[in-house]
Design a protein that fits this description.
This protein is an alpha+beta fold and 270 residues long. The protein has helices at 19-22, 30-33, 73-77, 81-101, 114-125, 133-137, 185-196, 202-217, 231-234, 253-256, 258-268, and strands at residues 5-8, 62-63, 66-67, 141-143, 150-161, 167-177, 181-183, 199-200, 221-230, 244-252. The longest helix is centred in the middle third of the chain and has 21 residues, at 81-101. The radius of gyration is 21 Å and the shape is globular. The two termini are 27 Å apart.
Length: 270
């Protein structure tokens, strides 16, 4: 069986920075705080040879109490029970049209309740639109004198490709180096879950998780790596079962220091 791996990451060397100097009690250099969030605080001598993440030009994580919301996310979040029922009914009607469009009979026994079932399932698959990073984290940020790498790896991820509305599934690995503050470990998995329960592309999902953690903790650095199998490549198109897409987002010391980046990659593959 043919296999293919699409590796979407960059690990070119850049300026060296020792971890000991980064973890001092003094305020972090500006460059550590601006890799993945909107800022105009760069100084010419702070810019490394490796370019900053494109997310430096994007809005901050929190908008109207939500986290990178879609156009109708706030309206959906504020739905009353009656409005939610109407939303499900609207989706179910569209599913009936789809069934008719492929030549099926929505009235036959096996499909009679399928439109409503799928409508409710789709609302669950995309529940991340309604979730707020601020509410999710709550009070799970703790002051802790720890300046070594923290990694939670092999977090299962299920999402829907926004191009074909078919699943992609895999595992995500999240690491960071604290700057006097740590996050409850389960929250790392919840952040990944929140952003995956949306219509996504893997590249954006990887960066959203990294940038969100950067904004929550302002750590010395964040590293997020994800590998997934996309049903749009397996069930249709090139039809290549076994292929994996690998994406990464490195911020702060993980982006600037090749040795720190290599340590992280070695640990997640251990």
């Amino acid at each position: 069986m043919d296999t293919a791996e699409n590796h979407v990451s960059a690990t070119s060397p850049s300026q060296q920075r020792s971890r000991s100097s980064s973890s001092s009690s003094n305020a972090l250099p500006v460059v550590h705080h601006t890799r993945g969030i909107a800022s105009n605080m760069f100084h010419a001598h702070d810019v490394p040879s490796r370019t900053a993440s494109p997310f430096t030009a994007q809005d901050r994580v929190h908008i109207n109490g939500l986290s990178w919301p879609s156009k109708g996310a706030l309206e959906r979040k504020e739905d009353s029970a009656e409005e939610r029922a109407k939303r499900v009914e609207k989706i179910a009607g569209a599913v009936r049209t789809l069934l008719e469009g492929i030549g099926e009979d929505p009235e036959r026994e096996g499909l009679l309740k399928t439109p409503e079932r799928y409508a409710k399932a789709l609302m669950f698959f995309t529940k991340g639109y309604e979730e707020s990073l601020k509410e999710m984290i709550n009070d799970a940020v703790f002051e802790e004198d720890h300046d070594e790498m923290v990694i939670v790896k092999d977090i299962d991820i299920f999402s829907l490709c926004e191009h074909h509305l078919v699943p992609f599934t895999g595992k995500i690995h999240i690491g960071y180096i604290p700057n006097k503050r740590v996050l409850g470990l389960s929250k790392l998995a919840r952040i990944a879950e929140m952003f995956s329960r949306r219509l996504q592309v893997q590249e954006r999902l990887t960066k959203q998780v990294a940038v969100a953690l950067q904004e929550i903790l302002q750590p010395q650095g964040v590293a997020v790596t994800m590998e997934a199998s996309h049903m749009c490549m397996v069930m249709r198109g090139v039809q290549k079962p076994g292929s994996k897409t690998v994406t990464s987002c490195m911020l702060g010391v993980f982006r600037e220091d090749p040795k720190t980046r290599e340590e992280y990659l070695r640990l997640i593959n251990h």
